[in-house]
Amino acid sequence: MRMLHTSDWHLGRSFHRVSLLQAQSAFLDHLVAAVRAHDVDVVLVAGDVYDRAVPPLPAVELFDTALHRLAEAGVPTVMISGNHDSARRLGVGAGLIERAGIHLRTDPAAVGTPVVLTDPHGDVAFYGLPYLEPALVRDEFGARKAGHEAVLSAAMERVRADLAGRPAGTRSVVLAHVFVAGGEPSDSERDITVGGVAAVPAGVFDGVDYVALGHLHGSQALTDRVRYSGSPLAYSFSEADHRKTMWLVDLDGDGGITAERLDCPVPRPLARIRGRLDDLLADPGLTRHEDAWVEATLTDATRPAEPMARLTERFPHTLSLVFAPERPDDEPLASYARRLRDRSDQQIAEDFVAHVRGGAGPDEPERAALYRAFDDVRTDMARREVAG
C-alpha cells in the first residue's frame, strides 16, 4: 500500500499579512500531480486543514476544489480534523462525501471505526484520531485524568480492541493530530497545553504499523513508524530552515515501512538577517536574500531613522522588523529578557509572586491555584474555538 502523508495545510492563513492562497493552491496542484505520478493508493491528511474554526470563503472554495480533484483522481483520502479546525464544520456531509472516496474523521466517538482498504496483501485498517481536546472528550473516553496522554491512550485502546477483532495479518495505520514527545516544534503551531502537559510519548501508538502525525510544522521521523509530515508551506520565520515535504510511504505485506520525502513548491524563500542597519544594507553576503521574504533583527544601540523604508530598498520583501539592541550583559533590560526566555506562563507567574513577596514563592496550594487559573483560561479558549 503506497500512502502519501501530508498535514497542516492551514488553508486561509496568511504570512505576515501576505495572502498565501495562491501558494496553497499551487501546493494542492502539486499534491494531485504527485498522487498520479507516484501511483499513490491513499492520501492521508493529518489535521489542520483550515487555519481557523470559521475559515474565509476563499479557503472553503479551495478546499472544495481539492476534494473534487482528489475524488476525480480515484484515490481514497483519509482526513482528520486538527486543533485549528472546527470538527463539526469540517465533518458536515461526511457521510455523503465518503461515497466519493473522501473519508473525513472528525468525531472522537468513532476513533475505533476504521476505513478499510485492500491491496494484494490483504486489508489495511486506517484509524482517524481527530484532535482530542482533553477537557472536551474526557467523559467520552472515561479518562481518569483530563490530560493529552490519558485521552489519547484511551482512544488507542479502542483502536487496538477493533484491530484485535480483525483477520490475522490486517495491517494498521493511525492518523493523529498531537504533540508527541521528541518532536521539534516551531513558532507557528498553536499551543495545546490546555488539559496538562501537551506532549505524549510515542509509545502510546505501539502496536500499529504506521502513525501519520500532524500538528508540528517540521517534517520529521520520531521512529521509522511514527512521522510528522510537517506543513507544506512555511508559516513563521522560525521555519526558515525547514525543507517542506510530504512523506511517500510504502507499507509492505508484512507491515514493513519504507519512506521518502517529496519536496513541496516554495513560493518564496525565507531569510532571517541580523545586525546593525548600515551593515545589513552594505553586506555583499546578503545579496542572495534580496528576493526572499525577510525578517530583519536590528541590533543598533539606538533605533535608526526609517528602518523599514531603508531595508525595503535593498530587500523589497521585508515583512518583519525586530529591534534587539546590543546591551552589556549586566544591563537590566537585557538580563530581564534573558530571565523570561523559554519560561512558561506558570513559571513567569510564580516568579512574579516571589518578586512581590520579597523572594517567597507560592506554596503548593497557590501553585495549584495558578495552574487551574491558566488551565481554565485555555479551556475556555478551546471551547470558543470549537464553538466557532
UniProtKB/TrEMBL annotation:
Single annotated GO MF: exonuclease activity
Pfam families: Metallophos, SbcD_C
InterPro entries xref list: Calcineurin-like_PHP, DNA_Repair-Maintenance_Comp, Metallo-depent_PP-like, Mre11_N, SbcD, SbcD_C
Keyword Nuclease in annotation: yes
Keyword line: DNA recombination, DNA replication, Endonuclease, Exonuclease, Hydrolase, Nuclease
Tree of life domain: Bacteria
The Calcineurin-like phosphoesterase domain, residue ranges: 1-217
Domain Nuclease SbcCD subunit D C-terminal stretches: 267-355
UniProt similarity note: Belongs to the SbcD family.
Known function: SbcCD cleaves DNA hairpin structures. These structures can inhibit DNA replication and are intermediates in certain DNA recombination reactions. The complex acts as a 3'->5' double strand exonuclease that can open hairpins. It also has a 5' single-strand endonuclease activity.
SUBUNIT field: Heterodimer of SbcC and SbcD.
PANTHER family per record: COMPONENT OF ATP-DEPENDENT DSDNA EXONUCLEASE, NUCLEASE SBCCD SUBUNIT D
Protein name as annotated: Nuclease SbcCD subunit D
Gene that encodes it: sbcD
